[in-house]
Structures
1.
Amino acid sequence: MKHIAVIGLGLFGTSVAETLVQQGHYVLGIDIDERRVQQLSRQLNQCVSVSNVDEESLLSLGIKEYDAVVVAIGDIEANIMVVQTLQELGVKRVMAKAVSHRHGRVLQRLGVTQVIFPEHDMGVRAAHSLSGDRIIDYIELSHDYNIIEVQAPPQFVGKTLAEIDLRKQYRISLIAIKTAQSILVSPAAETIITARSILVVIGKNEDLTQFYD
């Protein structure tokens, strides 16, 4: 279990915080809006309203002891100021929401561990879902490589992974096979694909497109 703080409890921050709790982590939610804090007080392990997210308030909450801090503040100036404060305090891992690519570049220069583009990422996922009817989820790793979760094509059903040979046919690699009940990581060559199988694969964009088109 990790101890993670989420600063800014808007739609994005709330979604991150609640998901982390569901995954079994200890989550501290921080916001200047007391109403939001009250609404989430039962969902999170700890939820605190502060008049100002500054060095004094963060130190009083023991922020330096947390494994990671997510800055989910939408206001660019406030976002950057909080990130800068966290960096000065020596917080181990800082992830920050960016509202534009220029904002993201500033955050990268400040040395954040990871910049998150919620609107961009959701837009990319939506576009790929529309492009391929079988795509369930899409994760952009880099400009060239991505991971997709895709419903097994009908022509794969009843065949083994060895018979399908994704690497040879499509130049992509299988990471796992998911079903409603379980996930099988690094499945063996003799594993048989069923109609309910969800394939988690990684590869270059052009190869993935050829696979699910």
2.
Amino acid sequence: MGSQKPKPTGFNLQGRGILGGLVNTPDVKAQPSGDPRTISLPVSQIQPNPKQPRRFFSEEGIAQLAASFQKDGFRGALNVRQLEDGSYQIVAGERRWRAAKQAGLNEVLCIVEEYSDEEALEFALVENLQREDLSKIEETEGILTLIESRLGISRDQAVSVIQVEGHPDRLARSDVAPSDAILEIQAVLEAFNISLQTFRTKNLRTLSLPDELKQAHLEGQLSYSCAVEISKLKDESQRSQLLNEVLEQKLPFRQVKERVQALKAGTPSETESEHQPILDELDRTLKLAKRAKTVLDKPQKRKRLEKLLSQINALLDSGDEHLSSG
């Protein structure tokens, strides 16, 4: 097996430290066929895990991988577990499974092991985080799902514990002992090399992002820092317009921050809003003028139009003069 990146130190789940287990990355070749865990399975007998943390798959990336499989054959191995009905569920490697299906492959190599629901989720998180393959949203929601499972609490309760009991002021108090819940949560986060305060102040912010920013970040078009910066705009139209500009022009964070600051300060947004009616009227007038050829054919009307245009140009050039009443 090829070399792998160092894995975060794991904690035991039902007596099994799965973070030290086998994690396959796309460039890693399958284990020798003599290993009883590695077998070929029909693609049709494999299904994705609905709780897996990765929610977005690039169609372009899958197509490229499928083309590679068609040319060179399937590479790597999926991590799967067998379900009660005899089918197999993906623990790690759904992207490769999708590509194999698209490539029309009948079978793929799989490493079959037993995993509880909790172990399967944790394994998938590790596999993706090692390759920095999850968006901040996927990372956050995957870890929250794991916390829910370990502590037996709801998502809202988990967030509340992190926000309230995880606050630095609360943790610094000597008269209040940390609860078992916050200690368990810290253990989960430390297993993924994420500090409690980073998760509290950064990761949880993804939950309150507007939907369009979530989607852009989830699809890899918008960085987490840019998404958070744009979310500071409360005006939906301003936010939408800036998002489109950032995606089209691929603006760096520095420019995004500058534009957000300018919009929040009211320049140019408030000015544009105040002057928009007259700008719209100018646009309408220009469109009418382009269609009004009959006006240009009549000497008197043409002369009057030329005079009006001269007055408008003088006004715009000076910025201070007013149209005369002639």
3.
Amino acid sequence: MKNTKTIKGFTLIELLVVVAIIGLLSSIVMASLNTARAKARDAQRISSIKQVQTALELYYDTKGFYPASPDSPFPGGVVTAALTPNYISQMPKDPTNVEPYVYRYYNNNNSSFYAIRINYEIRTPDCYVCGGPSATCASGNNSWWSLPMCAY
């Protein structure tokens, strides 16, 4: 009588194939997740700038002019001091807040318009928003920072 034992289990090749498939699927999921995160940060940028624009319009309604400032990053600087805490509780900062993803405010002592630069991760191109009754700014004749006006 011959006693044969059969051992049930996975071979090394089968295990390697499964590990390779899992690795491939996880890399695809991680790439999609990173893209979704970048899109969410871009949406947050748009929302933040709209809040700042509202605060700037409230400031203009009260004072009759926009805060004067050279090309300066915010939060911080003249625009932050002018708007907080009366017009906005705190100035929003970019979700990553590292160059080049830093909001920039420009007024150059004109006081009748302003421009805010936005750098995106996914949306293209980077652009600026402009506000105020100035026809020069509203018409898009000026290309601040060599960027187009935002269209969102």
4.
Amino acid sequence: MALPTPRHIAIIMDGNGRWAEARGLRRVKGHEAGSETVRVIAEECSRLGVEQLTLYAFSEENWRRPRLEIEFLMRLLKRFIVNERDTLMRNNLRFSAIGRLHRLPEGVRRELTRTMELTSRNTGTNLCLALSYGGRAELVDAMRELAAKVQAGKLKPEQIDEAMVSAHLYQPEMPEPDLVIRTAGEMRLSNFLLWQVSYAELFVSDALWPEFRAEHLHEALASYARRERRFGGLVDRLEPKTAG
């Protein structure tokens, strides 16, 4: 029997720097190797029929890194967005991004838009990059939009519920993640999709992101298949019949 496939897999990609340092390389080489893993995992998710794959690529906190590292990461991001267009089209992948995208360099934003437009008619997996992203920032931005509507008289405070908050997130149509994977053995969410992952299953892999391959993904999926998802309730069980 086929294992259940999550609709949405979200991955916190960790370990690029450690991978490079363990090999006596500059940290930037780890980021380059990590970008290769993105292609491998995106293609495998497409093959498996995963509806959405969201990758934590650059956080709001990452802006605090050294200027030269940030500049390299932006160049690498731009190159990835352009060079992977053939991969996206070949695998019927849609491309999208969430976060405070206005903070990204203009050249990166331009290529993001072009790639999203190019793949907009694809019907396969939605590959979503979280860029200049923070879960708290996303909630702050949603609250600001809601507050502005209240101030303008378009909304009453008592009308605000969970569904309305969800509708004001960066990608409202995003299905909530079923499975969150974190690499490099780290045991924290790091401000990633805080609203959306409330009932997600968590899986931590010891593999560093540049080493993460299809077999590691399948290990996470096998673990997911063994979970009993209750969403705060109880799973109905058949009571054993008794004689008499």
